Amino acid sequence: MITDLTAFAKENGVKYFMVSFTDLFGGQRAKLVPTQAIADMQENGAGFAGFATWLDLTPAHPDMLAVPDPSSVIQLPWKPEVAWVAANCVMEGQDVAQAPRNVLTRLVAEAAAEDMHVKTGIEAEFFLLTPDGSQISDEYDTAEKPCYDQQAVMRRYDVIAEICDYMLQLGWGPYQNDHEDANGQFEMNWDFDDALRTADKHSFFKFMTKSVAEKHGLRATFMPKPIEGLTGNGCHAHISVWDAPGAASKTNVFAAPKGVGDTAELGLSEKGRAFLGGIMKHASALAAITNPSVNSYKRINAPRTISGATWAPNSVTWTGNNRTHMVRVPGPGRFELRLPDGAVNPYLLQAVIIAAGLNGVRTNADPGPRRDINMYTDGHTITDAPLLPLNMLDALRAYDQDEGLKATMGAEFSAAYLKMKHQEWTSFCAHFSDWEKANTLDI
Asked: Residue 4 belongs to what H/E stretch?
């Protein structure tokens, strides 16, 4: 594990460090620090005006210091003289409780104290668009069912292969890349890891993908629903819990011999069942974090897309190996949460998974009945499962009413997040759209 950034720079020829933190809205903020100054930054942090980013701070607050975590450092493969390093936000000697990486770090420690070491893998989907974001960049990518399209993925080989080469170079263990279900959409997968490491990699992956796309004259977007009528960008999370962090882990706590019962026959232990129960119990509130934008609800409440399926949930249900539900259990010892979308904050995604799961284990939460139907064709037959929120305001209200989840995520974080997101909703409501004129101008 890297502990000294100055030594890292000397050994690897690094001239500059990007000391980076992620704000409440998922924006990545950074200062470019020359190597000669990094020792001081590692000890004291780089100074930021917190109000200038999406945090619930005012211009009167003192400097917020971003203290780099050397264990997270990544040398930019496409510009090796620069290294990116994730930072924890501090103000007047105290952790900034609302800062997303701080929220996750605290919850990782809280779960570890209860012998739970959460590991996750994520599936980050994105579109490659023209530079102005107005249309799909590949004019020939027009198939009705473009998923896994061999020709389409090869037309974007230069971008996809460059990103994958960098992940190989970084030791992330990438194992597959494909054209996804929407025209112009792609997904790249790498090995699962401890929740904090996955969040750092997810954050860097977004930065890297956008940077490589720009290099090739394109624009990468993780926007949940950038193109009307097409499948949106999901960010599915595969979740398991182990007996120890990192390479020390030997036993998957979620795995169990197949037994009798909805979850047992899928190879999920009692702890895994309770953790899943927490996810199901808090699902509606979870959406405020996992689906954080106005646009998010165009994906999870979408009408049928051109390909024939949205691949996104709209109800709080779980199943075995069936992709039409909010949660699926594809194999023993893990489950996949299909609710999150591309706009999700990498650190808050991991944090809210741990928070909901911890609450589930603490209360031995029941995940409810397993459903094995096709939700896209037969979902109307289920009357005892809640629908997911229809819009961001509904999700924020659900989160505000979920006292257990709010408390576990942290009172200060929850208050700041709700305040800032309600302001965003108010801004959206003040916006006049073409739809309003088209539907009411002559009423």
From this structure: none
Report the C-alpha gap between 402 and 4 in whole angstroms. 42
Domains held by the chain: number: 2
Q: Is 433 helix (H, G, I), strand (E, B) or coil?
A: coil
Please indicate, yes or no, whether residues 321 and 409 belong to a single structural domain of this protein: yes
CA torsion angle 418 421 422 428 (round to 10)? -170
Q: Are 271 and 334 in contact (CB under 8 A)?
A: no
List of the chain residues with pLDDT < 50: none
pLDDT, residue 212, reads 98
The answer to whether 84 touches 177, Cβ cutoff 8 Å, is no
| Boundary of a domain, candidates 92, 127, 158 | 92
Amino acid making up residue 2: I
DSSP category for residue 225: S
User: Is the separation of the CB atoms in 143 and 183 below 8 Å?
Assistant: yes
The domain that contains 61 carries what CATH number?
A: 3.10.20.70
Domain contains 97: no
Name every residue whose Cβ is closer than 8 Å to that of residue 341 and which is 6 or more positions away in sequence: 224, 232, 233, 234, 235, 290, 291, 293, 296, 299, 300, 312
In sequence order, what are the residues at sequence separation of 6 or more whose Cβ sits closer than 8 angstroms to the Cβ of residue 302?
225, 232, 310, 312
Taking Cα atoms as reference points, which of 203, 238, 206, 234 lies closest to residue 220? 206
pLDDT tens-digit map of 250-279: 999 999 988 877 888 899 999 999 999 999
Residue 73 sits in the same domain as residue 115:
no
Q: How many CA atoms lie within 13 A of 419 on its CB side?
A: 11
Q: Which domain holds residue 295?
A: 107-434
Q: Judge whether 30 lies within some domain.
A: yes
pLDDT for the residue numbered 308: 74
Instruction: Quote the CA–CA distance of 181 and 191 in Å, as a whole number.
Output: 22
Distances (CA, A) of 161 to 74, 154, 157, 158, 365: 19, 9, 6, 6, 43
CA gyration radius for the chain? 22
Same domain, 388 and 254: yes
pLDDT of residue 301: 84
Nearest to 279 by CA among 248, 239, 314, 313: 239
